[in-house]
Amino acid sequence: MGRRSAVRAWRPAPRTAALEWASWMTAVLQQYLKGYPDRQTMGQLTFDILEWNTECDLIEVTGKWSLKREKEPVEGYFTLWFKRIQGSWKIVKDHTS
Known about the structure:
Layout: H1 3-8, H2 18-35, H3 39-42, E1 44-55, E2 58-68, E3 74-85, E4 88-96
Antiparallel strand pairs: 1-2, 2-3, 3-4
């Protein structure tokens, strides 16, 4: 996924006005491109799944993320909760540290 695609993938809550959404998305994209002007600066993001638990219509995934780049490589952990809603899996909780 390209840099611009990552920002475009986000969608506003239904109550958010289209004008507010366009303004917010433009501001986020400009800030993102300023901080990550090229692939070298952006680095390579990888994920490792550490634990996977399922219970009926709920899946909890815990893992480790790592961003390898020349300047300041960083890493951390994440937890995602997926819930089946009307036949589709949706992320209902996302925590990253």
